[in-house]
Every structure is written in structure tokens, then in C-alpha cells.
Amino acid sequence: MKRVILVSFMILTLSLSAFASNMEYRLTAGVFGTVGTITFNEQRRGGHYTISMLIKTSGLASGLTHHRIIKMVSKGIYRRGDYLSHYYSFQKKDSKSSYIKEYKIDTRHKKVFKIDNHSKNHQIMKYFTTRDPLSILFELIKHPSSIKSGRYRSVGLESHGGYIQIVALNLKQAQKERSELGVSSNSKIFYMLIPNKGKSPRKIVFAINPKGGLESAYTVAIPVIGVVYIKHK
């Protein structure tokens, strides 16, 4: 009887600690209209998380990119608002080719293993981190008050300096960007700057609900298409 009660309690605890969310957004670009969709999915259970991001092009953008699809996946430990990555993958696929690279993070030995499925190369990264682009993004989206301006080391970006820079905007800068994004005065505004080898950093502007949640975003300098906005479907 005690065993039954214990098992029932464990099942109940896991059920209460489980979490799932799905966020869908449109990608729009001026005169081109809708150029694709972006979907975020998060699953949490028993202290572990899985996050995925799927980008699908549509319309003219789909034709220009050969029907490109981009998928990212992050898996790891969720602890008091922190996403500690143990695995990250990036996949880019279109009608002409497919490419995927994976990162396995060994927290015990402080090593990151990269697997490039295109070249079949396996290598140990020169630096160690438990962050990846998706885990950093979700910390920003889910817990904007805890994110501070600064550089965050990340796997998956070794050819671009190996880090992402987050900038929390001051009042004057935020006012301009809120107007551009069409969000309320309560929205928190952040820049995410991704180093771009030999060029200016790639900038993404995010409007985040103070209680958590992506409201809107845009990125600049997309070839041919121009400025791309991320908006709720």
C-alpha cells in the first residue's frame, strides 16, 4: 500500500511539474507581405526541457530560397529560470540541399563535442559553455527581468566569435523601437547582436512582455527581402 501511495505521489509531482507551450508567429516583409512562419515549442518535465524553433518560408521568399526550412533544437536542464543546455542542433534544408550540425555538451568533463553531418567531422570545441542560441533566447523571452546586458558565450556560433550580445535599451531608445514594433509602453525592448564575420553584427530587436512572452520582433538587412517582422499569427 505504501508503495502504491509513493508511486502515485511521484506521478502527481511529475504531472504538476510538467509544462508545455507552443507559440506561432508570422514573418512579414513590407511589400512582400507574409514571407514565412516561425513556431516555438517548449516542453518541460522533471527538471528537463526541450525547445524547438521551426522557420518555414512561404510565397516569394520560398521561391527565392528554394523552399528553405530552418530548425533548431535545444535540450537540457531547467533550473530556476535558467536553461542549461546539454544538446543543440541546427538544421537548414531546401529543395537542393540539407545540412545539420549538432553539439553535445559534457558538463562533467567541461567539453563540447561538435558533429558536422555534412563533412562528417567530429571535433572538441575550444571553449566550454552550457548555453546555445535557443536557450539564451528563451531565457530572454521567459524571464526578461533577469537578463542583463552583456556577452553570452554560446555553442553554434564559433565561426562568428562564439557569443551573442544582449543589450537592454534605455528609455529613449526603447521608445523609438516600441513605436517601430507597435507595442505598448510597458514592453521591454532588447537588442540581440550576433557577430557576423567581416561585417556588422546581425541585429534582432525584441519586444518582450514584462511578465514573459515574445510580443513582436524584427531583424534588418535580410538580402533581397529587407526588414523582416515577427508578429503573432
Structural overview:
The chain is of the alpha+beta class and 233 residues long. 18% of the residues lie in helices and 51% in strands. It has four helices and 14 strands. The protein has a 14-stranded antiparallel beta sheet with strand order 8-7-6-5-4-3-2-1-14-13-12-11-10-9. A hairpin with a 3-residue loop joins β13 and β14 (226-232). It is globular and about 45 Å long.
Explain briefly what this protein structure is:
This protein is of the alpha+beta class.
Q: Which terms summarize this structure?
A:
233 residues; globular; 18% helix; 14 strands; 4 helices; alpha+beta; 14-stranded antiparallel sheet; single chain
Helix content: 10-25%
Spatial strand sequence of the major β-sheet: 8-7-6-5-4-3-2-1-14-13-12-11-10-9
The Rg value, from CA coordinates, equals 19 Å
Label the structural class. alpha+beta
Overall form: globular
- Number of separate strands: 14
Average of per-residue pLDDT values: 86
Count of separate DSSP helical elements:
4
- Low-confidence regions: 1-16
Question: What is the first-to-last residue Cα distance?
Answer: 50 Å
User: Which H/E pattern describes the elements?
Assistant: HEEEHEEEEEHEEHEEEE
